[in-house]
Amino acid sequence: MKNCEYHQIDPQALSTPNPTPPPPPCAERKSKRAKRKWEVFPGKNRFYCDGRIILSRQSGVLPLTLGLILVTSALFFIFDCPYLVEHLTSCIPVIGGVLFIFVVITLLQTSFTDPGILPRAGPDEAADIERQIDSSGSTSYRPPPRTKEILINEQLVKLKYCFTCKMFRPPRTSHCSLCDNCVERFDHHCPWVGNCVGKRNYRFFYSFIVSLSFLTAFIFGCVTTHLVMRSQGEKGIIIALQESPASAVELVICFFSVWSILGLSGFHTYLVASNLTTNEDIKGSWSGKSGSEGSGNPYSYSNIFTNCCVVLCGPMPPSLIDRRGFVPPDDAPAAAPPQIELPTLEAKSDINMCTRGPKDLSPPAPL
Ligand SMILES: [Zn+2]
Ligand SMILES: [Zn+2]
């Protein structure tokens, strides 16, 4: 167990217990404003509302996503709903309204939530890890440099060293090159939502794409019904389109987006049911090791329902970057380094779930 530790910064060690900065002890410090951690954050993220909102630096597509949803829904409510309420049922705007609100809320939650960024190691921690790397490998077998191997559910999992964050990445963690952060249970970087999708915002992302599929299919169906009803009788479809040109715009947007959104929802439903991430699926992390008893995804419960519950309804882990906390003043006595948790694999929900049942989390093979 001693050899399989990875370094994780304890959120408690980073958080500042006092919400207000401590009173400056001398007049010199009065001029200095206490900086918050988001102001000196090393990753390529943008922060708004004094650090409350986090976004990727390249979040230019998010207004487009939001704009497409807003414009299409507005056209639907203004030009299609009155006709459909008059000739069909008043439930249509109610269903559309509920879906629209749900889509917008889940989109903003995905975009503005910390996806599970791991704080970079401090100088003391980095030096400590360097010492461990240098001192290891005295026995006959030596793993490739800058990697560690641990056993999860009787399966060997490699932990890679991140040269930017100066630490061994915990299992399922990957470094996003666009945000320049290590993200826990990294799924992918989504330009459409302007954020990484990871451990803390995957449930919002999944809810967003599923509800967006329903909304797009609903609008598509309603607009088609509207045009068909208008074109009945002596009028043709051309006259119907002339009478309601906005419907044509909605039809085009929905037609071209519904297939990709439905496909994406189906793909992520498969990932949720198998407790996989897009990153693992693309890399084929667990598919290439067939034949042995411990092959397959070590994080899967082998039960679709349990996998869905764990991925979508599990407890929300706390944000580790403490972006609203205060940076300790430079001239203050050196603060204690963040507490390093030695192999508290039980603390990680992803690992924890692998320790259930007859399969036990075993210590790594002797190096
Ligand atoms: Zn990293
Ligand atoms: Zn990213």
- How many separate structural domains? 1
Classify the oligomer.
single chain
What composes the largest sheet?
Answer: 3 strands, antiparallel
Q: What general form does the structure show?
A: elongated
Topology pattern, helix = H, strand = E? HHEEHHEHEEEEEEEHHHHHH
User: Going across the major beta sheet, what is the strand order?
Assistant: 3-8-7
- Please report the distance between the alpha carbons of the first and last residues: 12 Å
Count of DSSP-assigned helices = 11
Alpha-beta content class = mainly alpha
The average pLDDT value, as a whole number, equals: 76
Rg is 26 Å
Beta-strand proportion: 5-15%
Write the layout of secondary structure elements.
Elements: H1 11-14, H2 27-30, E1 45-48, E2 53-56, H3 62-87, H4 91-112, E3 117-118, H5 123-135, E4 147-152, E5 155-162, E6 167-168, E7 174-176, E8 181-183, E9 188-190, E10 195-197, H6 202-231, H7 237-243, H8 245-274, H9 278-283, H10 304-313, H11 349-352
Antiparallel strand pairs: 1-2, 3-8, 4-5, 5-6, 7-8, 9-10
The structure holds zinc ion (2 copies).
Provide a compact summary of the structure.
The chain is mainly alpha-helical and 367 residues long. The protein has 11 helices and 10 strands.
Description:
This protein is mostly helical. The chain has one domain (2-11, 53-353). It has eleven helices and ten strands. The protein has helices at 11-14, 27-30, 62-87, 91-112, 123-135, 202-231, 237-243, 245-274, 278-283, 304-313, 349-352; strands at residues 45-48, 53-56, 117-118, 147-152, 155-162, 167-168, 174-176, 181-183, 188-190, 195-197. Residues 1-21, 26-31, 289-294 and 331-367 have low confidence and may be disordered. The structure holds zinc ion (2 copies). The site of one zinc ion has 5 residues, from loops. One zinc ion binds at residues 162, 164-165, 175, 182.
